[in-house]
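Two quick folds needed for the group meeting slides. Do the first one here.
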Amino acid sequence: MKRLRYVKETDAEVLIEINIVLAIRPSYGHKRVTAMINKARKLIELPRYNRKRIYRVMELNGLLLKKEVVVRDHEKTGKIITLHSNTRWCSDGFEIKCFNGEKVYVAFSLDCHPVNPVIHL
């Protein structure tokens, strides 16, 4: 049996604030809406709303954005490859602390094309 979600008496006030933000920014999800509402409430020295409350009110009123499901039909091999060289690069960097307090920085990049891998240091 599915539990019913509770509704607070002041949810109507929260819904008004949510609709004001969504009128300006209709592509915002519940996290950004919460941030915008709490930023405005801070300016007029009102308490913040919990992000879970904003999510609940938006869900009850059908205001959440729909998640796009991406269906991939290829077999996963765990390898990142491209059809042509110089289209996709992988890079990383890190630092090594030496005993004397100095730091050595290392950065590298790799071309993801499987033929003739090129490493740039």
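Then this one, please, same format:
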Amino acid sequence: MNWKRIWLTALMIYIALEITNIIFHGHILMSQYSAPDAAPAFRPTEIANRFMWVYFVTGAVFAFLFTFIFAKGYERKGLAEGIRYGFYIGIFYYYTIYFNEFVLYPIPYRIVWYWILGGVTQTIILGIIAALIYKPKQSQWEATA
């Protein structure tokens, strides 16, 4: 594995993750979060902001693990590999988490589906970034072929 590329890719994944979160949650879905049937499920902004550091730490862990798992299974199949990987991770992660949260918290059903569709779209974008940036070291055989 190419550790320099893993760290570079993880950094780019983290930046893209934060940007897409701002766009998706901070702009696209903000009106949904403040709707009367959804607002009670969320902390007030001033309280949520006190815990925002947790959000950034978990984002960094997600970015590293997303990249590390991609690198472990890397097959040199280009963008299709990144799209497929992002789709699988998105379904695995977002579908299971958000339906479990729906059971536990008073989150409207429509928001669960927005989160799943947005999350899968996000991980596909992250998979594309991983496919574009991560390249393992070439073996001696590949370098001479």
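Slide caption for protein two: Residues 3-137 form one domain.
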